[in-house]
Specification:
The chain is α/β, with parallel strands linked by helices. Helices cover about 25% and strands about 20% of the residues. β8 and β9 form a beta hairpin. α3 runs parallel beside α4. It is globular and about 70 Å long.
């Protein structure tokens, strides 16, 4: 990030790595080399990775000048306060560390365009601007490690499958570098849901092989059957056809734009000021298949769920809704989405889907409801739409009988997520099946 990155953005990216995890990280890393001549730690924080490991010299690059250096830093180690993308030195035996994790929404656009162009020029692979910041760090680590060097980093396991990280995977594959992924079986960072991994790219070993493993905090390693951990291949990512999925709306912040029944009444809003919406299917019983008026009333309105989407999407809003919006302070809507439009509250309204699908699930597959009440999908609930006539109950039965769990990369220990383009691939398969049976 550039030197003018705000404290908010710096704080967002800083996650403390526990000492036992660092010890385990070095144990895994030293499986590939017993000693390193020189090590670069990208996003070094307080330099705690320097306290372990076998190396001749360690350089940690950290952009936050207010970050205090950890006590006991070896004489062979230094912390350089700079942006790692402005760090000119290359030719490291190893590039290591816990790179910052920041979604693309919070990365300054001018900076990302500049760095992406630089990385594209160096690697020949066009960077996806929707990738997370740690992907940029992995690219720069590969560039700064010498031709027989090693890159070993603590990063989310999802990079092995996410479309936004595909250019990184292709760059590695094009060079034939060996890759070993060690996915943690338990959370290692407090408050971070995403499954972490120790990802090792060995530039010296050019066999083009990728292996996937599980690892616990004691260092016990077991090999996974595949990237998904099951005997099934990962679901492919496909585009929109005549039947397609679309992610839930992101109006800005659910705290403002979605209301419970009690919040609607307290705000003095009438039903003319809101639209029915669904933000989560977590509390919905698995035997509920149709969301009609009575089910919506019982499960969402009376159940105290966020079930009303304010109609600030309209060109004309009521005095009641205007008064509600005027009561919202700027700090309450200080999000990338709200700040990128004028007025801050006018969002584009997507039409209500025919099926409501929870993108997150714990086993087998997500909950799926036929949307008879025409509720709008918001947040983690996505929608299914069609350009052609569909028997929605039949499609619902097909999806509920599909084992998604075996075909996706786990997001966390218990939580699985279905990506929109992966759901599209299942919908496309359904269409092909229907055509075949017609």
């Amino acid at each position: 990030m550039n030197k003018h990155r705000t404290a908010y953005e710096i704080g967002r990216s800083q996650v403390t790595t526990q000492e036992d995890v660092i010890q385990l990280f070095w144990r895994i890393t030293h499986r590939y080399r017993s000693h390193f001549s020189n090590v670069l730690d990208l996003g070094a924080g307080d330099g705690r990775f320097a306290l372990s490991g076998h190396y001749t010299s360690y350089e940690g690059v950290e952009i936050d000048t207010k970050m205090p250096t950890i006590a006991g830093l070896p004489r062979t180690a230094i912390i350089i306060h700079n942006c790692v993308f402005e760090h000119q030195k290359e030719g490291y035996a190893a590039c290591i560390g816990n790179p910052p994790y920041i979604r693309h929404h919070y990365i300054e656009e001018i900076w990302s365009e500049s760095i992406a162009a630089h990385l594209t020029e160096k690697t020949g692979f066009r960077i996806n601007r929707q990738c997370n910041l740690y992907v940029y760090f992995m690219f720069i680590a590969l560039l700064k490690a010498r031709s027989d060097g090693l890159v070993s980093v603590l990063v989310p396991y999802e990079w092995v499958s996410r479309p936004s990280a595909e250019p990184l995977r292709k760059y590695i594959a094009s060079n034939g570098w060996h890759v070993d992924i060690y996915k943690f079986v338990e959370p290692i960072f407090n408050g971070v849901l995403t499954t972490a991994s120790i990802s090792v790219i060995d530039k010296r070993k050019r066999d083009g092989k990728w292996s996937y493993n599980l690892i616990d905090r004691n260092g016990e390693v077991s090999q996974l059957k595949s990237i998904t951990g099951s005997d099934c291949d990962i679901l492919p990512y496909e585009g929109r056809e005549q039947l397609w999925a679309m992610r839930g709306m992101s109006p800005g912040t659910q705290k403002i734009f979605t209301l419970t029944e009690g919040e609607r009444i307290h705000a003095g809003l009438h039903h003319d000021d809101v639209l029915p919406c669904v933000t989560s299917l977590r509390e919905v019983p698995s035997d509920l298949l149709h969301l009609d008026g009575s089910a919506f009333q019982k499960r969402f309105v009376e159940g105290g769920a966020k079930c009303w989407l304010i109609k600030s999407c309209d060109d004309t809003i009521s005095p009641r809704l205007k008064a509600y919006l005027d009561s919202v302070t700027s700090t309450m809507y200080d999000t990338w989405t709200c700040n990128s439009r004028k007025p801050w509250y006018r969002f584009p309204l997507s039409k209500a889907p025919k099926l409501l699908v929870s993108t997150g699930f714990t086993s087998f597959g997500p909950k799926i409801l036929v949307n008879a009440v025409k509720a709008h999908a918001v947040g983690s609930v996505c929608g299914v739409y069609s350009d052609i006539e569909i028997d929605w109950s039949r499609l619902q039965r097909y999806l509920l009988g599909f084992n998604f769990e075996k075909r996706v990369v786990p997001h966390a220990k218990k939580l699985k997520k279905i990506e929109i383009r992966q759901l599209n691939s299942v919908l496309n398969s359904y269409l092909q099946q229907e055509v075949h049976h017609a």
